[in-house]
Amino acid sequence: MTHLPFGFSRLGFRVLALLGIHLCGGVLLNAAFWDDAGRWWKGNLHAHSLWSDGDDYPEMIADWYKRSGYHFLAISDHDNLQTGERWHHVTNRPTGRLALENYSRRFGNSWVSTRTFEGQEQARLRPFSEYRGKFEQSGRFLLIPAEEITARHLVFPVHINAINLQTVIEPLTGDSVLEVMRRNVNAVLEQRVRTKQPMFPHLNHPNFGWGVTAEDLARVEGERFFEVYNGHPSVNNEGDAVHPGTDRIWDIVLTKRLAELGLGPLYGTATDDSHNYHTNSSRLSNSGRGWVMVRSRSLTPGSLISAMEMGDFYATTGVELTRLKQSAKGIELRIKEAPGISYTTHFVGTLRGYDTNSHPVLDKSGNMLPITRRYSSDIGKVLALATGATAAYRLNGREIYVRAIITSTKAKANPIQTNEVERAWTQPVFPSRR
Asked: Model's pTM, two decimal places?
């Protein structure tokens, strides 16, 4: 008999059943091994337009991603799905006039609507339903409706993207960061069950405003994804002297979920979180910094989401893979080489019997701070290292999980960090439990 992990809701179990994911001994296992079937699709799951705090029209944003070789895009404006009638004041933003001029030049006056209202020039924002047909092509480019649910607890931001959402979810509050995450994640999963449409939530930039700890994220039963890389310069991907970076958070969460809480793995995405489209700068959130490569048989929301929920994708800031094979036996990969560039692959994981001790972070008065605790180096240790274009790791049964981080010597274009280089992250694998 299979028992639900402590705190796992009946809703969560039902959603997992719909996804074809099964519980074995309290641990979530992939329903099938990954092979080389399907093709790779490039996509960004996090971007903003003038419908919230971005500085360009959604058509201009979609046009850039399509022309730049992406296959899918989710423009996830804050707390809306780009529906209804919306006009914006052209001069309310420093780039407003430039944005309108570029928009009119690209799509023509027959597409662009402007008016004068109370003495101010306004431009109409076309809703998603009107402009998506201008860009979508079967097997070539797909626009996916999305929302960034912009919640918080006290001063701590808790932002959750909902991918392929059908109706807007208003941000839900709670008595703790954990409760806020759970309530908003469950709202997405409930809509999925109710509408029978594929969709999923993913936690955005956990270190933005230092809002989310590894301990809280580990306990969100229905959460399967988070951003290991976000291209906004203010989200603290690398952490600081007292806060761990997102890679360290990922390892702590994976260890706790798989070894201690009886929950499933957490998968990592890379996104742009783009807001600024007129000037490229390390101080601005621009396009083209982070994306996911998803292996799927077709370019549809259902196929892409199914593949991602099986972990059949990788996150990247520039490193490309020509082969990726992952299973309960291990990881094999081949990197698309660039002339004069070197590559190092670190296989990172936690072994059984790891040191479970941790210590809180204290202030000068000895008070506990709401920061991820300090854990042993047993968690997320380098289990193997490979150089060159190919790398492989074979599981020996001692691992709780293993994932790969590929680092190149190629400097990242338009970086947000000094000396930033291109990287990629595969998803964790783990031995079968019998």
From this structure: 0.92
